Target: Olfactory receptor
Amino acid sequence: FADICFTSTTIFKMLWNIQIQSKVITYEGCLMQVYFLILFAVSDIFLLTVMAYDHFVATCHPLKYLVIMNPQLCGLLTLESWCISVPGSLLETLMFLRLSFCTNMDILPFFWALPQVLKLACSDTLIDNIVVYSATGSMAMIPFHGILSSYYQIVSSIPSISSAVGKTKPFTTCGSHFSVVSLFYGTGLGVDLTSAGTSPSRTSLVASVKYTIVTH
Model:
């Protein structure tokens, strides 16, 4: 559900722009796109963290898996992911209401990335930059640390597995998840860092497509 909504936030508007040969988006539409893009992106990040923890329990504590990963805990972790995503995305979006913009602006990517929006503002954006990058950093890097910790525990447990089949099972189980995490974080950070420092290039646009569409 989170993946479908995250992709729908940008791709339907992009397809509509191609159909009518117009790239115009209203200020209200921009705010809505930014809000839902952050909402589903952050929820994806936390759900990927929950999935990493699930892999950790399945690999390191297989006999206790059904006890630890019970339906109540799964529901609680999913609910917490959404409870963090909603206020986090709302905070970053509301920061734009205090900014002033010119009437007509051009932006190269096919969706409104936060760094690009801040660069287009006519008023001072120091406070907004601090809040946005602090919130984005905490909501992205804290879950990423949890994912790395889970994988570290998984890799550390492999030498203690006696059978050859058992040693390869964690790689087959976690391979797809690790690929999505690498692609999601790699392209996402690339888009944010590139758009914050320089004008978007063709490479950053390709990364934007991978970040918003391919990984989902």
